[in-house]
Amino acid sequence: MRSQHYPRVALRKVLVAIVAILAFLGTVVTVTLATTQPASAAVGDLLHTTTFSVPCSSGLGVGVTFDGTYLWYSCAETGGTDLYRADPLTGTVSYSATIDNGLGALAYDKNDNIIWAGPGCGTDLTSLWKIQLDGSHQVATSTAVTNPRTDNCLMDGVAYDGSDGTLYISPDVSTTITQVTQAGVVIRTVTWTGSGCYNSGLAIGGGGLFQGSDGCQHVWVVDKNTLAPLYDFSTAASGSRDEGLSCDSQTFAPKDVMWSKDAYNDTANAFEVQPNTCITGGGASTTLSESASPNPAGIGSPVTFTYNEQNTGSHPISGVTVTGSICGSATYKSGDTNSNGHLDPGETWIFSCTHTFGSAGTFTDNATAHGTDTVTDSALPPETASATVMVGHSCVPVVKHVSPLGNPKMEIVRVLIQGTCLSGATHVTFGNVAATSFTVGYAGNITASPPQQPAGKVDVTVTTPGGGTSAINPPGDQYTYYLPTITQVVLNHGSVAGGNTVLIQGSMFSGTPAPTVSFGTGNFSSSVVVLNDGNIRALVPPHSSGTIDVQVTAFTGSSLPTSMDHYTYK
Question: How many helices (H) and strands (E) does the chain have?
């Protein structure tokens, strides 16, 4: 959470001074509560900005978490009240508490109705805090817990994993994330995924670990177990810096959002994320999925809707029911492996129902699952899923939008393909080359890994069993491959004899075959090491004196000469 150029205390003093000057001059500063939702929301869209009615007295607050009803936020270095409960949409504060005269990041544990908090440079500079809530969403008790990460008295990253009850923590200005037990025992420490800043906020709402970037307005989402990239998005639309993060699958249902708390003002921003990846309280205690078969179907032919209800939490669940909007209550089929009548952790129960359609059309079944936590004896938030079936006609696929899940000028792992009639896709091509891999997800949207190709624009097409191949539909169906770009050569000068090593920075350097580096026309480096997509180490070959252009050639082509790629032989 520290600025790249100024330490936290100095930056906070500057901000406080600015506010004081404005107040002295009689300047009125108006903060508008954003409530307008984009007409066509997508991953990374800013859906809402909430301004809290009670500001942090210290001017510094990094924590935010959603408990299924309220949005909680924390204040650091207060010397007093450090935890507030507010309405997630209006920001109106209805309750507050003093835990340690200063708290850091927050994470809600819906399995046990607990808020986990990091230190916030209060009285206890090192401990984590276990804050037990009661049934009225107020603090019942608070207990200090061992914190193995004591490298900073402010912790701006805490996430709770509802599947195993562990915590992920990251102090301020850190590039590592530590997974710990609730007793503070270290399980593993991993390196932050982002670049350019430090890690800030953390959140878990299922299989993904959300990682904020301290001042760089970007969030990376990785598989929490393998750390493989899932997707990422910019948060620049908010104009704020991301500190504490929290998942919320209820306030804007059926959309999932990730809340981000700004450290130096009293706002929290809700960004749309991929469906079922940011579930309230550390991940779903249950996850519901649905399919329809056959699809497409003929008029008068029975269609079976199948529902899979999985317990991804740590408590058994009783009274599990699934209801569909088309054929009503679904029938339990299988999954209770020990026949105890409880959906135990790790179990998946299968329900189904059958409906016969008497007319042609496109029909969507919206399903809802309910259950009760047997440990807390409380009803779980309902899980929802849907499946769309086409009856009596073929549906021709149309690709309307192709958006990179990441920086389009860096190596792209996956892209999101949106359109109509994409369900059941069997082939996805970029130009004339098949996608490396693809999956058909929520509402028929497709996530695909593009193949390597030369720089330029290509049309993306989708093929389905009943509708054939989508027609070319530029510019909506186009995807752009970029040339390598050099932004800096370090050091950018050396002897005519060569033999020294330089660091070349830029983008689009990775891929197969491995890139080559030339110092002037045809004068190639004999040793090129690709550190990542934006960094190469290269051995400088001999050359006559003078300034030349360094060029990187990768799978998309060769970088174009600019003043940033100059190297001078002396």
Answer: 1, 47
164 compared with 501, residue with greater pLDDT:
501
Do residues 361 and 389 lie in contact, with contact meaning Cβ atoms separated by under 8 Å?
Answer: no
| Helices (H), ranges, 137-207 | none
* Residue for token pair 């593993």: 188
Enumerate residues 6+ apart whose C-beta is below 8 A from 52.
73, 84, 86, 91, 93, 266, 267, 268
Whether residue 36 has pLDDT greater than 70: no
Q: Dump the DSSP string for 283-312.
A: S-SEEEEEEEESSSB-TT-EEEEEEEEEE-
Distance CA 86, CA 66 (A): 10
CA 515 to CA 529: how far, in whole Å? Answer: 9
**520-542 mean pLDDT:** 93
Residue 114's pLDDT band (cuts 50, 70, 90): very high
Q: What is the mean pLDDT of residues 473-482?
A: 89
Q: How many CB atoms lie within 10 A of CB 134?
A: 10
Q: Considering only CA atoms, which of 212, 233, 209 is closest in space to residue 223?
A: 209
β partners of residue 82: none
Beta bridge partners of 270: 48, 259
CA–CA gap between residue 290 and residue 306 (Å, rounded): 6
Partners of 168 in beta bridges: 159, 179
Which H/E stretch holds residue 24? helix 8-25
CA separation, residue 521 to residues 50, 173, 489, 530 (Å): 56, 43, 17, 21
- Residue ranges of domains in the chain, CATH in brackets: 8-272 (2.110.10.10), 286-391 (2.60.40.10), 398-481 (2.60.40.10), 485-569 (2.60.40.10)
Nearest to 322 by CA among 275, 371, 364, 249: 371
pLDDT of residue 6: 32
58-82: per-residue pLDDT in tens? 999 999 999 989 999 999 999 999 9
User: What does the alpha-carbon distance between residue 351 and residue 332 come to, in Å, rounded to a whole number?
Assistant: 4
- The model's pLDDT over 484-496, given as tens digits with 9 standing for 90+, comes to 899 999 999 999 9
Residues in the chain: 570
Is the confidence at residue 17, as pLDDT, over 50? no
At residue 443 the predicted structure's pLDDT band, cuts being 50, 70 and 90, is low
CA distances from residue 339 to 314, 320, 334, 342, 349 in whole angstroms, order as listed: 18, 14, 10, 8, 11
Whether 533 contacts 507, CB under 8 Å? yes
- pTM exceeding 0.90: no
The pLDDT value recorded for residue 184 is: 92
Nearest to 349 by CA among 304, 310, 292, 293: 310
Is residue 386 over pLDDT 70? yes
Classify 237 as helix, strand or coil: helix
Name the maximum alpha-carbon separation found in the chain. 83
